[in-house]
Each structure stands twice: as structure tokens, then as C-alpha cells.
Amino acid sequence: MAKILSNRLDKAEAAFFARETEFIMTRTFDAKPPELKGLVLVPMARGLPVGINEITYRRYFEAGESKIIADYAEDYPRVDVFGEEFTAKVYDIGDSFGYSIREIRASMRTGKRLDQRRALAARRSNERKLNKITLVSSTDCGTFGMLDYPGITEATLPNDGTGGSKSWRSKDADQILRDITDLLNAVVHPTKGQEVPDTLLLPLKTFTDLTTRRLGTTETSLLKYIRENFPQITRIDWLNELSGIGAGGANRVFIGKIDADHIENQIVTYFEQLDTEKKGGTYTIPCQSSTAGVIIYYPQAFAYADGV
């Protein structure tokens, strides 16, 4: 008569599985994260308590102006501070990985560790979702992303390229440099110089074109010239998410002051492995992250233009 295997682990098997999941959890957190640029680019908010449902922040404005006063004057001008309050809801992101009883027993019998790649895949899947929410607003849950955040300035580029195009591939070097200047001015002029962008982000094909295009007969690339002649821009990079994000599928160029004073990524829980669950003949480990998306505290420090 064939031996009927139990659909539960015995004490030794359960102890082995507990040690393995603890080991896998440690390795998952120690693993080098993939190059997801949104998670690297946007500063992470610090000190967010685990388990919160909402994040409330306030934006303040100063009003009033000092003036010259006469001796014995009593009419000192009043200055004050006014505030606006905003609330962002926290949403959970989840996936899971697991092992069958047969896999656990086979691993114990052969002395081999359980496959860690499943745990890493679960973490990377969550990270990809966090990265997407960081960069692009979500219609599913209503979080805001950096690249299309409400209230940032939309600049319009001249369509004086070949065939009346806005694309930088159809424009010469002088026209591209003018467009970058216009983008800078879309932030600098309305804020009277209080906000000066330090980051220029481009679609990948546009970035590649600037690295390979030479200025006249020189060996200097257009990208190198931009770096050297716009000293306020300390970071120029590409983002895949800028391709096709604009109206009608247009590519977008983005500029802004990216630091923790102006923008933060509201990730409450980056990645967490929850308690193991038994489902039939499989042991499943749920994984969770939580985020409220991005908050831009000063939208006027950012601008974008479509059509590049």
C-alpha cells in the first residue's frame, strides 16, 4: 500500500522551515536593490510611523512688508503667516511567495537551502510598483507622482524644429539651449529667483541624442556643453517614464529642485514580510509595502514641457 504523506510539516520540518524563512528574510533585505531611478532620485521622508492611514502637511505663506517708520511712530506694519493644510492617504502594496510541502521536505532531505529567488522577486515586484507610484500619479488609488504632480508649471516649447516640430531631434543646438533656458526661466522668473532648478530629466532617446551630437566640428557633445554652461543644473539624467507621458503620448522634459525641502517620497513601509500562512499543501509568505506617493511642498520649483 502506498504511503500517504501528511499535508502538514512535522516538528523537525517546521523548525527547518522556520530557520529557512528567517534566513531568506535576512538575505532579502540585504540584497542590493535594482536601479529604480525614482526611488533613488526622490528623497525618502523620514520618521513616518508604521500603521498610519494618512499624512497631513502644511504649506505656509508670509504676508506683509516692513517699511520706513518715523520717530515716535505707532503704526508698525503687521506681518503674518498663513497656512494651507493638505492630506495624502496611505495605500498598501502587496504580493507573496511560497513553497510547497514537497519542496520544503526535499530541501531538508538534501541539505539545500530553499530557493531565495522567489523572495527577491516579491521584493523587486513591490519596488517596481513603489518606483512607478513615485514617478507617475496613480489613477487606481489617487496618489501623486513627481512627473505629473498637480500644480507644477507647464512650459510650452516653440515648434520651430524641422517641419514645425518641438522635438529636439529636429532642432539645432542653439534651439535646444534656448528651450532649456526657457524651462529654467519657467521656474526662476515667477519665483523671482527664489527657486532655481538643479535637476534636468530627459527621455532616454533624447538623452542619448545629446550625448552623441557634437557641437559643430568640435569633439564636445551637446550634453557636455549643457553641463558646463548651465552650472545651476548639477544633475542631468534620463527616465524611461518620461517617454510618452505627455498629452497624446508626447515625450516630456522635466526640471526642478529635487531635495528634501521641496519634495519627499512618502513611503511608510518599504518592504515587509508578514507571518507565514498555510494554504492547502503550500506555505505562503505575504509581503507588503505602504506609501502615500510623492508630496511636492513647493510645486513652483518644478516645470515640464511636452514634445521633446
The largest β sheet comes out as: 5 strands, mixed
Q: Spatial order of the strands in the main sheet?
A: 4-11-7-5-6
Shape: flat
**CATH architecture descriptor of the largest domain:** 2-Layer Sandwich
* Helix and strand element order: HHEEEHHEHEHHEEEEEE
Number of strands: 11
**Arithmetic mean of pLDDT:** 90
Please state the structural category.
alpha+beta
Total of DSSP H or I helical runs spanning 4+ residues: 7
How big is the Rg?
A: 26 Å
Q: Stretches where pLDDT falls below 50 for ≥5 residues?
A: none
Give the terminus-to-terminus CA distance: 73 Å
Outline the structure in words:
The structure is a single chain. The chain has 308 residues and is α+β, with helices and mostly antiparallel strands. The protein folds into 2 domains: 11-65 and 80-146 and 265-295, Major capsid protein gp5 fold (2-Layer Sandwich); 153-263 and 299-306, 2-Layer Sandwich (hypothetical protein PF0899 fold). Helix content is 28%, strand content 26%. It is built from 7 helices and 11 strands. It has helices at residues 11-30, 37-41, 101-110, 117-135, 173-188, 204-212, 222-229; strands at 54-63, 80-89, 91-100, 153-154, 199-202, 235-238, 252-256, 263-273, 277-279, 282-296, 302-306. The strands form 3 sheets. It has a 5-stranded mixed β-sheet with strand order 4-11-7-5-6. Strands 3, 8, 9 and 10 form a 4-stranded antiparallel β-sheet that branches. A two-stranded antiparallel ribbon has the order 1-2. Strand 9 (277-279) and strand 10 form a beta hairpin. The mean pLDDT is 90.
